[in-house]
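Sample pair:
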Amino acid sequence: MRDAESSLNSGKELAALMQTLEISEATYHRWRNQYGGMKGTEAKLPPTCRKR
């Protein structure tokens, strides 16, 4: 999210960013609502992504 926000702030268009990240605009907005403003230590990986 941090990289996406910095790209948008530097002038990159949202459509170009979505294509670079290979996600839909809906996914971007969902992630932004869910994880936006969190620090790296606050965000946790979902159980399916954690190493066992």
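Residues 3 and 34 are 16 Å apart (CA to CA).
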